[in-house]
């Protein structure tokens, strides 16, 4: 089973793709570990490390860095949603 | 919405449109991106929360995505209730919550090029559970701006206090009196049902009748 990773908005443009699927690497069991794994690819994926207030959702629920990730999950990375309250 | 029903006494609606300028830059086009699946889920959750807080008999939210131009409608919120107070409040709550919690991202095309609209720091704190924006807070803020006697109503819980307190500080009437520093309000939900009072009246810096003694919340009457 693969893990599906989605990118949205500015992050999608920075990474250059909106989605990818790959087998969950060994030793990756949480959102934080997946984030570190992707950011360690370097190049375009450095945007994951540099995006301020990065938001992460696992299976369409907001998640924290310690949320577990298992094979078959859908993990989305995105910048904070746009919104202004005046 | 009210067809075939006679128990609905109020319908409040809100329509959001694309402005032709933002922060001084002209906007020629806007693209709204969303997270298919999660966006629908969050919209349903937001409506569900509004139902839990107010007497909402029916609610509809329609949000557009994709390419939009100035003047286009972006979002429609309609709330039906028995009384106008609940309808207005729930409509505003849904709109506020939607702007800060539903996964939508705006990209504006201006003559200088495209740019993603950032969330304001104050709009987006933490990814976890966030204190609900109290719509009554907005109304109180407006009142507080025009009437110094109402300044105390500017107390809203959680992150909204952080947002609104600086505004209060800039109030010409009470330039140095932050409102929420030494007092804590009950959570909004219970404040609505119970008398409007401080959690710790003894710590209140000013014995305001609406604050420290039993009284009706301004939002509980419609």
Radius of gyration of chain B: 19 Å
Number of strand segments of chain B:
9
Distance between the ends of chain B: 21 Å
Q: What's the number of extended β-strand segments of chain A?
A: 5
What keywords describe this structure?
heterodimer; A: 86 residues; alpha+beta; 5-stranded mixed beta sheet; 27% strand; B: 222 residues; 4-stranded antiparallel beta sheet; 30% helix; elongated; disordered C terminus
Detailed description of the structure:
The complex is a heterodimer of chains A (86) and B (222). Chain A is built from three helices and five strands. By secondary structure, chain A is an alpha+beta fold. Chain A has a domain of 29 residues. A five-stranded mixed β-sheet of chain A has the order 2-1-5-3-4. Chain B is of the alpha+beta class and 222 residues long. In chain B, the strands form three sheets. Chain B has a four-stranded antiparallel β-sheet, with no helix packed on it. In chain B, β8 and β9 form a beta hairpin. In chain B, α1 runs antiparallel to α2. The chains are: A alpha+beta (86), B alpha+beta (222). Chains A and B meet through α1 and β3 of A and α2 and β8 of B.
Topology:
The complex is a heterodimer of chains A (86) and B (222).
Chain A: E1 2-7, H1 9-15, E2 19-23, H2 31-39, H3 46-50, E3 55-58, E4 61-63, E5 74-78
Parallel strand pairs in A: 1-5
Antiparallel strand pairs in A: 1-2, 3-4, 3-5
Chain B: E1 10-17, E2 21-22, E3 25-26, E4 29-34, H1 38-53, E5 56-63, E6 66-68, E7 73-81, H2 84-101, E8 104-110, E9 113-116, H3 135-146, H4 159-169, H5 188-193, H6 209-212
Short description:
The complex is a heterodimer of chains A (86) and B (222). With 86 residues, chain A is of the alpha+beta class.
């Amino acid at each position: 089973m693969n893990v599906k990773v989605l990118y949205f908005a500015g992050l999608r443009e920075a990474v250059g793709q909106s989605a990818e699927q790959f087998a969950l690497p060994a030793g990756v069991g949480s959102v934080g570990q997946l984030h570190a794994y992707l950011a360690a690819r370097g190049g375009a994926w450095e945007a994951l490390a540099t995006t301020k207030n990065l938001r992460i959702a696992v299976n369409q629920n907001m998640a924290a860095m310690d949320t577990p990730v298992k094979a078959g999950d859908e993990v989305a990375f995105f910048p904070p949603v746009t919104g202004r309250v005046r | 919405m009210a067809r075939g029903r006679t128990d609905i006494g109020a319908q409040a609606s809100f329509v959001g449109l694309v402005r032709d300028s933002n922060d001084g830059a002209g906007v020629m086009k806007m693209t709204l991106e969303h997270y298919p699946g999660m966006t629908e889920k969050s919209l349903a959750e937001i409506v569900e929360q509004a139902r839990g807080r107010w007497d909402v008999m029916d609610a509809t939210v329609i949000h557009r995505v994709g390419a939009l131009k100035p003047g286009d409608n972006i979002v429609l919120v309609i709330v039906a209730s028995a009384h106008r107070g609940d309808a207005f409040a729930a409509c505003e709550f849904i709109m506020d919550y939607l702007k800060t919690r539903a996964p939508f991202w705006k990209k504006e095309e201006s003559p200088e090029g495209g740019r993603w609209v950032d969330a304001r720091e104050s709009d987006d704190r933490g990814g976890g559970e966030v204190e609900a924006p109290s719509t009554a807070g907005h109304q109180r803020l407006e009142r507080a701006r025009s009437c110094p006697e109402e300044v105390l109503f500017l107390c809203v819980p959680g992150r909204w206090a952080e947002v609104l307190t600086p505004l209060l500080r800039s109030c010409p009437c009470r330039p140095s009196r932050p409102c929420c520093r030494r007092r804590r309000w009950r959570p909004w939900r219970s404040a609505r049902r119970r008398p409007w009072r401080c959690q710790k009246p003894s710590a209140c810096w000013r014995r305001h009748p609406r604050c420290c003694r039993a009284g009706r919340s301004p939002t509980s009457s419609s």
